Amino acid sequence: MRNNINGDNINVIIATDCGSTTTKSILIQKIDGEYRLTHRGEAPTTVEAPFEDVTRGVLNAIMELEELSGRIILDGEDIQSPSTGNNGIDLYISTSSAGGGLQMMVGGVVKSMTGESAQRAALGAGAIVMDVLASNDGRLYHEKVKRIRQLRPDMILLSGGIDGGTVSHVVELAEVLEAAKPKPRLGVNYKLPVIYAGNNKAQDAIKERLGEITDLTIVDNIRPTLEEENLQPSRDRIHDLFMEHVMAQAPGYKKLMGWTDAPIMPTPGAVGEIIQKIAKQNNISVVGVDIGGATTDVFSVFEGQFNRTVSANLGMSYSVCNVLAEAGIPNVARWVPYEMDEKGLTNRIANKMIRPTTIPQSLEALKIEQAIAREALRLSFEQHKEFAVNLKGVQQERTISDAFEQTISGETLVNLMELDLLVGSGGVLSHAPRREQATRMLVDSFLPEGITRLAVDSIFMMPQLGVLSTVHEKAAVEVFEKDCLIQLGSCVAPVGKFKDGQVMLTYEINLTNEKVTGEILAGEMKLIPAEYVGCSAIFKPGNGLDIGDGKNESIQTEIYGGVVGILLDGRGRQSFSIPSDMHTRVSKLWEWSEATNEYPEEVK
Amino acid sequence: MAQSYTPGLKVLANTPSEKVRQLPLKGEVLVKVGDSVSADTVVASTHIPGNVQMLNVARQLNVEAEAVPDCMLVKIDENIVKGQIIAESKGFFGYFKSQLKSPIDGTLANVSNMTGQALLSEPPIAIEVDAFSAGTIIEIIPEEGVIVNSNGALVQGILGIGGESHGEIVVVVNSRNDMITKEMLNESHANKIVIAGAYLPLDVFRHAQKLGVNGIVVGGFDYNALSSILGYNLGVAVTGSEDLGISLMLTEGFGEIAMAEGTFNLFKQFVGKFASINGSTQIRAGVIRPEVMIPHTEDIESTELKESDMIISENSPVRVIRAPYFGKVGTVVSLPTPLVKMESEAMVRVAEVKFEDGDLVTIPRANLEMILY
After folding, report:
1. Domain annotation covers residue B138
2. N or C: which end of chain B has fewer CB within 10 A?
3. Rounded to an integer, what distance in angstroms lies between the CA atom of residue A529 and that of residue A527?
4. Do B241 and A150 touch (CB under 8 A)?
5. Do the Cβ atoms of A419 and A389 come closer than 8 Å?
6. CA distances from B100 to B51, B54, B58, B104 (A)
7. 3-class DSSP state for residue A373?
8. pTM of the predicted model, to two decimals?
9. What was the pLDDT predicted at A557?
10. A237-287 tens-digit pLDDT
């Protein structure tokens, strides 16, 4: 890794993002004094035998760049640097989320008490809970040890006992971990993260047993008293440790570190950089999402406060069946615009889990993939709203009777009516064959309210630009503005209770060359082609509805189109629903598809 | 010439494999480097104390707690058997004695003159680890286990459930395209590893489980059936600790998918051989695949996979791993550089593949898998 980067001498840059499924590479070149994206390549991420080395996928993705650009970048397995003529590059940087999702084990003294609290904390942090260890789980000591070794969790959350209570049981659990000598599944150069969130009186004994052999962090007790549950400190710590230590790691990570000119950044960290910059530069509220193979990351800036969540159990390949399990088959099937038997649908989705690097070739496969993406996005956003609260660390008082109810602590900062810009990134959004499809996926899952601008990462390069911005801001900004962000347009969606057949919205939009006027009825969608320029417009919400200025209040505003246009959405907000009757549902989905130019006509 | 890397599952007739066999606790290693072992040879073992039971002697004999030690007929740490009289009250002048029988086999661990209770310990529980597959010990992990080297056939699957098991290979279908039915299974298949064809219905799986079949290898299975067996929907492909009494390995995926020809033929080649199956799967970075190992000493050229074997190039034998051609086998004719538009309108890197029936089709490279024989 180079220590000094002289920005003036940088003419050719390669940036890669090692995702859990795909490794993406971009080639940025200085053309007429300006940095521009010139080529893009990708290859399956190589974390499986016989390669088990992410650098193979990186080399393959760079080889694609070579093929497409004609530039010679590699000399065997070495990246040629610096550049001379049509050879080599000057800067190589990378992000990584190749480690994939977060699979945890949790432990508590009593399975139905601290064990369940620990499980809730882990689930709330977006992890998949592989097993709950407890003193009373009926398993023998050696069975627990064997289980830990067999599952190879990414992280362990250990809780147990109320503050000041009995120490021996939770220490016994620590001794099980000690005996198992848990190792991270990738066997790389870090210790397994263990978070202790149990009886404060046992902290020294826990340190004694696990301090050396694990990466032990101690946080406040998850159950300080029997009636009180305090999930936030554990949840936040799980989240941070995952981002910092687990996600980016993968076989060959150390080798990759030796190649890059700047530290490898975890993908959500890099995308977060970009989202914050967009919000700051334009002084707007932004929600961003990056949907990957194993995780879905959501970012928001409201009232100047940045929040980031990584749903490590919701993704489009490795954890796609978890989306199915979490959302339920009916919620996924509601977006599929034809009758499909449950067996066929679940088999198709499950095949993506076991063959994560495959891509939809047929239109039918694409529609199923986009249906499940809507649910992954929706669930991730739900989780984000729970995290992005204005009173961090609020403790949730629980009585014994409601001790097992999961409720939100604090008021969420996410206010969709205040949202100015919704940005999407990740394979299923950036590579959707039509930008209209990305628009629909964003709108259907986030359900923006009032007037909201929509944008998408053109070719899925926000992670690379995020890390680039930390070492060469000029190049990152230039490429971001000119080549990365695709302005899709705006969504206009009235909010409130409505009746069938009701007028939801009356509109008058002054486009560059014409004025368009009309009405949108309940359950209708309409797409008005419009370019990315400010157009004056008047929107009048239907009776009892709100478009941003209060119930029944008209709005005179400037609205932007984009490559898709202005989407008028009369399907309702708070509440939004899809007809449950199969025939009506399918017919509505076709109608919305047609209205928004979502899929090709000839193969419908 | 253009190339493309793809994932691929090993289907090899003769290859060396190394397995770490480790106890969950420190114990004793029972073999030494160079020893030949069979699949069920115990290579390391240890014991954990048996469960303990409290016996309220004072109450049952109707004596004071402090009198209990004098009533005991066995000494601390002495072995006892179920039904043995272990305590007796003094009675009145030798009459009206009460007796207490041991409810378990084990040892007397302790007697309390404070509580009047006796602590009985069940026999120690043996924890053993076997060799999994026949082979030679090549390394000892002191007090914990060994590394076993085996030579033989190795077939990796795409997903499995259930842990480790062993058994003789038996093929019950005529063709890799056939669906296994209940009628194809009987008592003679108990303790065997059954090779099915393209699809395993749930009721046939349950039938095999009842018959005591040790393992089933099949092309396809339903996700819903898997959920039904597991009792939950598998969210991520991490399996292996299911206590089903049978191991299942899918070679192709979910649905009805003919077993790859090479895989099916390899199993046919080793019918009657003793094999080891492990259904454990973890599909995430640091992948673990389910596998069947068939140790043998036949004179087949030993193959070890090289990285170059995984590169798809012109003339590579490939299999399609996604609809609409899922499961079809062909040969790569060319790997065009420009992106090509699919029916889904996605612009992707493709390969032109000639199927066995002569059809020439364009398929995304990401949807191809190398066939590794």
Report:
1. no
2. N
3. 6
4. yes
5. no
6. 20, 13, 10, 12
7. helix
8. 0.84
9. 96
10. 887 888 777 777 778 888 888 899 988 888 888 888 888 888 988 899 999
pLDDT tens, A185-218? Answer: 765 567 889 999 999 999 999 999 999 989 999 9
Set of chain B residues whose Cβ sits within 8 Å of the Cβ of A146: 24
Contact check, Cβ <8 Å, B337/A343: no
Residues of B in contact with A126 (CB under 8 A): none
Cβ neighbours around A596 below 10 Å, total:
21
> What angle is formed at CA B320 by the lines to CA B317 and CA B326, rounded to 5 degrees?
145
Residue A185 contacts B where some CB pair is shorter than 8 Å:
yes
Distance from CA of B184 to the nearest CA of A (A): 25
Collapsing DSSP to helix, strand or coil, A437 comes out as: helix
Task: Name the range with the highest mean pLDDT among A175-184, A543-552, B120-129.
Answer: A543-552
Q: How far is CA A546 from the centre of its chain?
A: 30
Helices (H) and strands (E) in chain B, counts: 5, 31
- Alpha carbons within 13 angstroms on the beta-carbon side of residue B326 total 25
Looking at the structure, do residues B265 and B179 belong to the same domain, yes or no? yes
Overall number of domains in chain B: 3
CA pair distance B176, B173, nearest whole angstrom: 7
| ipTM (interface predicted TM) | 0.84
- Which residue among A46, A350, A362 sits closest to B344, beta carbon to beta carbon? A362
Q: Which of residues 474-513 of A touch B (CB under 8 A)?
A: none
Nearest alpha-carbon partner for A529 in A580, A557, A568? A568
In chain A, the domains with their CATH numbers are 7-98+252-259 (3.30.420.40), 103-246 (3.40.50.360), 268-310+410-595 (no CATH)
Cα–Cα–Cα angle for B65, B71, B73, nearest 5°? 140
Q: B189 to chain A, minimum CA–CA distance in Å? A: 29
pLDDT band at B246 (very low <50, low <70, confident <90, very high): very high
- Bridge partner list, B44: B29, B129
In angstroms, the CA A196 to CA B102 distance is: 43
Test B322 with A342 for CB contact under 8 angstroms: no
Mean pLDDT of B345-359: 91
Asked if B280 and B168 sit in the same domain, the reply is: yes
Q: Find, in chain A, the residue whose alpha carbon is nearest to that of B127.
A: A142
Residues near A180 by beta carbon (within 8 Å), at least 6 away in sequence: A144, A145, A148, A149, B24
Amino acid at B260: A
Specify the 3-state DSSP secondary structure of A91.
Answer: strand
pLDDT at A50: 60
Mean pLDDT, rounded, for A29-50: 85
d(CA A409, CA A375): 24
| Domain coverage including residue B213 | 11-21+150-295
Cβ(B19)–Cβ(B139) under 8 Å? no
Neighboring chain A residues of B234 at a CB cutoff of 8 Å: 321, 325, 350, 353
CA angle centred on B27, ends B22 and B28, rounded to 5°:
95
The answer on pLDDT for A403 being more than 80 is no
* Domain stops at, among B248, B275, B295: B295
| Same domain membership, residue B92 and residue B217 | no
Res. A19 pLDDT band, cuts 50 70 90: confident
Gap from A141 CA to chain B (nearest CA, Å): 9
- Residues B286, B326: one domain? no
Measured between CA atoms, how close is A299 to chain B, in angstroms?
A: 24
> By the 8 A CB rule, do A506 and A474 touch?
no
Task: Inform me whether the C-beta atom of residue A593 falls under 8 Å from chain B C-beta atoms.
Answer: no
Taking the CA atoms of residue B234, residue B240, residue B242 and residue B245 in that order, the dihedral angle to the nearest 10 degrees is 130
A353 touches chain B (CB under 8 A): yes
* pLDDT value at residue A246: 76
Q: What is the rounded CA–CA span in Å between residue B291 and residue B157?
A: 6
Same domain, B284 and B328: no
- Is residue B134 one of the residues assigned to a domain? no
